[in-house]
C-alpha cells in the first residue's frame, strides 16, 4: 500500500497548491476506480502557534483535507543535515527534529498498515 504525502508550509500559496494536488489525486482515483490515500504534512511551522498557522489549520479542516498529526517545526537540524550528512534521528535522536521524524514515520506506518489491513479484509 502506498501513501501520497504532500508537504507544504502554512501559507496561502501552499494551501492553494495543496488543493490543486488533492484534486489531481482524487481525479486519478476516480479514473482508476481506486482510492488513493494521502495526507498533508505541514513543514517549517513556527514553534509557537500564530494566526497564520491557525488559519492554515482551519482552512485544511474546512476543505476536509486529511492532515498528519505530526508537523515539522522550523528547526536548524533540518538545514544542518545537508551540511553534516546526518538526519535528525541520528544527530538529535531524543529531542526536537529527531523526535518529530520518529513520530512522523510511526504515523505513516500506522496509516499504511491500516489501509493494507482494510484491503486484505475486502479482498
TrEMBL record:
<protein>
    <submittedName>
        <fullName>Cellulose biosynthesis protein BcsQ</fullName>
    </submittedName>
</protein>
<dbReference type="InterPro" id="IPR027417">
    <property type="entry name" value="P-loop_NTPase"/>
</dbReference>
